[in-house]
Amino acid sequence: MADDRLIRMTATEAVARLRAREITPLDLIDAAAARIAEVEPAVNALPTLCLDRARDHARALMRGERREAEGEAGWLAGLPVAIKDLSDVAGVRTTYGSPIFADHVPTRSDPVVERIERKGGIVIAKSNTPEFGAGGSTFNEVFGRTRNPWNTALTCGGSTGGGAVALATGEVWLAHGSDHGGSLRRPATYCSVVGLRPSPGRVTRGTQEDLWSMLSVQGPMARNIPDLALFLDTMAGWDLDDPLTWEAPARPYAAAVAAAEAETPLRIAFTTDFGGALPMDRETAAICAREVRRFESLGIAVEEAHPEIGALNDAFLVLRSQHFVVDREELLATKRDLLKPDIVWQTERGLSETPSRLAWAEHERTRFFRSLRDIFARCDVLVTPGASTPAFDVMLRAPEKIGGQVLENYMGGSLINAFATLAGCPAVAVPCGFDQHGRPVGLQVVAPPRQDARALQVAALFERMTGLDRMLPVEPRAGVVPPYE
Question: In the chain, pLDDT over 70 holds for what percent of residues?
Answer without folding.
Answer: 99
